[in-house]
Automatic annotation (TrEMBL):
Pfam families in UniProt: DctP
Recorded family membership: Belongs to the bacterial solute-binding protein 7 family.
Name this polypeptide is given: Tripartite ATP-independent transporter DctP family solute receptor
Native species: Rhodoferax ferrireducens
Annotated CDD domains: PBP2_TRAP_YiaO_like
Signal peptide location: 1-23
Metal-binding in keyword set: no
Alphabetically ordered keywords of this record: Receptor, Signal, Transport
NCBIfam families: dctP, TRAP_S1
Gene3D superfamilies, alphabetized: Bacterial extracellular solute-binding protein, family 7 (3.40.190.170)
Length: 335
């Protein structure tokens, strides 16, 4: 009897959910959603949660097809596809969008956020919304921000115990001017490269190293081709979840609200997963044979000093108004 009652309640809840979805202006639609990281990575887990929420809230009318692992190409082709309307959604490093809107370079400033909590406060507040609003003129709509995390360095040449040890290393960077410049400031050799090409370049020794959050290093099996991991936490990457404006403009108000709310709800879950994964990834990478070093505080200070001129240079190109707006938000939370 108890089991029958539970089944009845579940069926009633499902019927109520579908009924409410039926009452809304929701059409049969398919969303192609792409990202660079492979299945199992926190970003893809976030996409799966988003698809689940959208299916439930739309009564199964809106289907989300996921394309992880860069199978639809690198970030630049994905942006073009969004603008052309042949791809509906993408999750990507917010800083990459500087190629479309120069102010987005601020998200790649080294040592900007001290914690995920600080980053959340900035990107979820007026500053983050203001930045995403700038994308509309470029054919994209920013829905929310997810998390990639704090970046660390790996290489196949030698352990890095000091800033001087980075000199001469050929390091893959996100194709973005600020990333080229901060690697040059370390006397290393930056190599811009689309993410799907990185593993093969590391394996062939065309690259000495790369830098990414621990969860990315683990999920993409870089430990197979990189033996040295240095914990630098030199840069934090928020992920912009963006949708094609051509697709967005076809949606009803109900559909827009459903998709926007689902992206935010899935994002809360995705950040939790990402932060838990960062803690477990380090142990997993050690078990995979990576030699882990942590820069002493004095060397971290040297690293910051090397990067200050780069930050100052890009503060000018990004614009003081944008820099001051972000700093004002950080000042609020740091009180």
């Amino acid at each position: 009897m108890k089991r029958l009652l539970i089944k009845t309640l579940v069926a009633a809840a499902a019927l109520a959910a579908f009924g409410s979805a039926s009452a809304l202006d929701i059409q049969e639609r398919t969303i192609k959603f792409a990202t660079q990281n492979p299945k199992g990575h926190p970003l893809v887990i976030g996409m799966e949660k988003f698809a689940e929420i959208v299916a439930a809230k739309s009564g199964g009318k809106i289907k989300v097809n996921m394309f992880p692992g860069g199978v639809l190409g690198g970030d630049a082709p994905n942006v073009s596809a969004l603008q052309g309307g042949t791809l509906e959604m993408v999750s990507m490093n917010s800083g990459i969008l500087a190629s479309q809107v120069k102010e987005f370079a601020i998200y790649d400033f080294p040592f900007q956020f001290a914690s995920g909590k600080e980053a959340d406060f900035v990107v979820d507040g007026p500053f983050g919304k203001m930045m995403h609003a700038k994308l509309q003129d470029k054919g994209m709509v920013g829905l929310t921000y997810w998390e990639l995390g704090f970046r660390n360095m790996t290489n196949s040449k030698r352990p890095i115990n000091s800033v001087a040890d980075m000199a001469g290393l050929k390091i893959r960077v996100i194709p973005n001017p600020i990333n080229l410049d901060w690697v040059k400031a370390l006397d290393a050799n930056p190599t811009p490269m689309a993410f799907p090409e990185v593993y093969a370049a590391l394996e062939s020794k065309a690259l000495d190293g790369q830098e990414n959050p621990l969860s990315v290093i683990l999920a993409n099996k870089f430990s197979e081709v990189q033996k040295n991991l240095t914990l630098t936490n030199h840069q934090y990457n928020p992920q912009s979840v963006i949708i094609s404006k051509k697709f967005w403009d076809k949606l009803s108000a109900d559909e827009k609200k459903l998709i926007g709310d689902a992206a935010v709800e899935a994002g809360k879950y995705q950040r939790q997963v990402a932060r838990e994964a960062a803690g477990t990834a380090l142990d997993a990478l050690k078990k995979a044979g990576m030699q882990v070093t942590e820069l002493p505080p004095a060397e971290v200070d040297k690293l910051r000093d090397k990067m200050r001129p780069v930050i100052a240079k890009y503060a000018v190109s990004v614009g003081q108004e944008t820099v001051q707006a972000l700093q004002a938000e950080l000042a609020k939370i740091r009180k």
